[in-house]
């Protein structure tokens, strides 16, 4: 299936189903190749408002990974295809997303093929931050689905734990955080694109971290085991949150800028 622009709702739904199945069975370089065959590069160039939310959200929901963040940055800065631009990472370090399995001796970055590099050059990363935001939201939804399934299946005192108020509150708070982050990511960029992208990435990171904490509490002891899928998503969101500015870093940067300006632009018309 080749991706084209101007797709109707039925075609988009078919594409989403195809992508979901592809990501369920491929990851890493194999997924890079599969996405290339589906026309990822053309879709990103012609219709990024469709390509970025769809592909990156599904990466989060399925737990797969691909080097497509490189493509978003290169498309934004006009770089040559196939490159690996350095990206700022938490704590003032820099990394590149290798187009391959990565270095097996670098186990600290959540199973992703990220390699630390001495430094890099600041560039326009607004679209890349939004892409990571959608990935974080997809991961948060995956964790919420795991917690919900467990809450419905796990029985204590003769009833599913989903009927307990404390469990319901954790799940509800997670859903509210996710929905809020999606709304922020979906705001049309009319003015202040850098500010909007930083706030969107920060909201998505906060939602993912909230999901990690609450869903761990709902799952209890089983959520700590290596056999359960939750820890994969938690490791993933911790790494993705640190890329291109963490939730804490972006919030502080935005706050400092607004204090210096002594005003806040209107980003959304209500």
UniProtKB/TrEMBL annotation:
Keywords: FAD, Flavoprotein, Oxidoreductase. Gene3D superfamilies: Butyryl-CoA Dehydrogenase, subunit A, domain 3. It comes from the Bacteria. SUPFAM superfamilies: Acyl-CoA dehydrogenase C-terminal domain-like. It comes from Mycolicibacter kumamotonensis. Residues 126-247 form the Acyl-CoA dehydrogenase/oxidase C-terminal domain. GO terms for molecular function: acyl-CoA dehydrogenase activity. This is Acyl-CoA dehydrogenase. InterPro entries: AcylCo_DH-like_C, AcylCo_DH/oxidase_C.
